[in-house]
Amino acid sequence: MKTEQGIALVDRDEKGVVRAFRDDVLQGLDQYQKAIPARWLYDDAGSQLFEDITDLPEYYPTRSETEILDARGKEFAELIGTGRAVVEFGSGSSVKTPLLLRAINPSAYVPLDISGEFLRESAAALAEKFPDVDVFPVEADFMREVQLPDEVADLPKLGFFPGSTIGNMVPRTAVDLLRSMRATLGAEEGGRPLLLIGMDLVKDQQVLEAAYNDSRGVTGEFNLNLARRINRELDGTIPVDALRHTAPWNDDFARIEMHLEALEDFDFEVAGKRFSMRKGETIHTENSHKFTRRSANTLLLAGGWTPQARWTDSGDRFSLILAEATEKRDAP
Ligand code: AVI
């Protein structure tokens, strides 16, 4: 087993506050429609709650994607080949990542995540399971180009972005991320970079809404944890009990939206700045876009990736797409 300590690349102020978190929250609360980027849902408590969501009976995406990873290992091995450095955008899941690593037998595994503790825990568990794979966790914001460890510089890369996390971004941000991934995965010397990406599919509205409004209230806790995190980390005074979780389907944009809705009027402070909410007003905390085969392909192409193969689960609920970095040349 070989693991590195991890490289800390997150920018914090003198009090240890993640600057980008504070800036996003202050800017987001100042808008007419209050909105905070979904990536801030994932502090350690939020990451744990998300793990709990993946076990819920209503939340089909994890089971559907795992079914594909489990069933299609041979095809991955043929199309991807062995000896690559797998660069996972996000901490590895204890179920999905081993299925991929077992199928393609890579030389190295580089998980990138902004949440350091969760990252190191999951990297250590992976390193123990795969003694022949060098594991290099990197604590970083992968929305921008990330400098990978020197040890993997000469290896061909496979980006791995499961879970349909791409769906949590509006198309413009998703395209920026896909381009950043291309930049992170770098030069083409050892073989052109590949990307294996999970994208959830458009389906029956009731199935979608139930997946984000579960009967046990775990998704609600996940959403409300963002308000608690703001109170904890940014000296916030949000009355969390005066908020409720909602998750409606927005058909025009093909997405589930998570909101925190005010149950009454109240004022509050965050990082010394004053804000207020009126009863019924919401903070928009997450989008979860769903795709068709064509909309998925269009997004990938816009981000510089050419789709090469596509798999779905037996219930046609979820897709995994293998794409290759598009050759740099002018359009026809
Ligand atoms: C991480 N992401 C893909 C999840 C999703 O389905 O959009 C986050 C999530 N939000 C509520 N439940 C799950």
| Low-confidence runs of at least 5 consecutive residues | 1-8
Kindly state the percentage of residues in helix: 25-40%
Instruction: Estimate what percentage of residues fall within beta strands.
Output: 15-25%
Q: Provide a count of the helices.
A: 10
| CA-based gyration radius | 20 Å
In round numbers, the mean pLDDT is: 92
Question: What overall form do the CA principal axes indicate?
Answer: globular
Quick one: how many beta strands? 16
**Topology order in helix (H) and strand (E) letters:** EHEHHHEHEHEEEHEHHEEEEEEHEE
Bound molecules: N,N-dimethyl-L-histidine
**Major sheet summary line:** 9 strands, mixed
The end-to-end distance, rounded to whole angstroms, is 48 Å
Return the structural class.
alpha/beta
Description:
With 332 residues, the chain is α/β, with parallel strands linked by helices. The protein is built from 10 helices and 16 strands. The strands form 3 sheets. Strands 1, 3, 4, 5, 6, 7, 8, 15 and 16 form a 9-stranded mixed β-sheet that branches. Strands 2, 9, 10, 11 and 14 form a 5-stranded mixed β-sheet that branches. A two-stranded antiparallel ribbon has the order 12-13. A hairpin with a 5-residue loop joins β15 and β16. α4 crosses α5. The longest helix has 16 residues. The protein is globular, with a radius of gyration of 20 Å. It starts with 6 loop residues before the first strand and ends in a 7-residue tail after the last strand. The site of N,N-dimethyl-L-histidine has 12 residues, from α9 and β14.
